[in-house]
Amino acid sequence: MSANIPPAGAQVQINLAERSYPIVIGPELLGDSATYRQLPPATTALIVSNTAVAPLYARQLQAALGGHYKKVLLTVLPDGEVYKDWQTLQLIFDALLENGCDRKTVLFALGGGVVGDMTGFAAASYMRGVPFVQVPTTLLAQVDSSVGGKTAINHPLGKNMIGAFYQPQLVVCDLDVLNTLPARELSAGLAEVIKYGPIADLDFLDWIETNMDALLARDPVALAHAVRRSCEIKAWVVGQDEREQGLRAILNFGHTFGHAIESGLGYGEWLHGEGVGCGMVMAAHLSRRLGLVDDAFVERLVHLVARAGLPVKGPVLSSQDNAGRYLELMRVDKKSEAGEIRFVLIEGPGRAVVRAAPDALVREVIDTCCR
Ligand code: NAD
Ligand code: GLY
Q1: Which of 40, 45, 123, 349 could form a disulfide with 69 if both were Cys (CB 3.0 to 4.6 A apart)?
Q2: Domains along the sequence of the chain with CATH
Q3: CA 80 to ligand 2 center in whole angstroms
């Protein structure tokens, strides 16, 4: 699966026929009413946010939406991956029903990937579907989760197992909000930025290596390029395979191992991006053991992931049979077929492939990569 991606440009558009939408990227967007002018008219908007993000940005967004909607409501969820569940999802439906929201009501997801995934799923299900807008406030959400229409909640037995494909009407990536993001969360977002290099765009991988210090220092020009290029690559993939029948699975590079780490430790212990960062390292080692890439490629990726401030060694999930526990968790993956785990592997720099691997090799990788 090699990529033939259009060059970097100012406008990023998700092209999905009647479900197409723009991703706007830049400073000072969230609080500007002009950002939302293109949205269809409706009486009510409901902003869904959380206890960390709402105090920072909800008032600005409410004011910007005030000219567009008669009523702008706000519901504030508890903060954290551990709340990405049925019980918390119900709070969104409670707010919609208690306020008599009709099927034209527009939901605004104001937060990171957790708020975005939950709000999207609520929008997909309320009255069998109401419009929604993503206003991502983490780097991870701006470069990945707000784009492409995957929405979900977690189940104790598996990550993102309950959800729907449901596209937003607009994605608003205001780069200014990244200034309040904790450093650990910035690093987590960089994992998803790095991901796009090995799977699709070696020039972008080179660029990330050259600009890693600027990204960590939140240089606005570097962040703008990282968000735009990531969204362009994701748009290119999603435009061809919206519902992950094939190509889109490459976006899960690092996620098979990463999801096992997240659910094995208990949601929230490691951040999603930390699991992905370490998972990419493990997937690179597996690619090496299958003879798809050389040692130099693995070393290059390990070095870059570490520079981003991400873990490169996996946690021990079981003192009895650690590799066995990873394998058990990884079988509960949406890419698994008839109980067979399918990994996103690198088959050459800039090219990903999805395939199974012998358990013995996977065990060797886990033994090498965990401490
Ligand atoms: P998150 O939503 O938990 O946000 C991280 C933390 O940062 C939270 O505490 C949040 O409240 C806080 N925060 C958010 N914006 C802030 C800001 N501007 N300033 C200060 N604090 C801020 O985590 P995330 O990394 O954004 O998203 C991870 C989630 O996204 C996972 O559940 C993952 O499964 C999901 N995901 C979904 C997709 C998809 O395609 N739908 C893709 C990747 C990840
Ligand atoms: N984050 C993986 C995807 O959107 O497909």
Answers
A1: 45
A2: 10-180 (3.40.50.1970), 186-369 (1.20.1090.10)
A3: 20
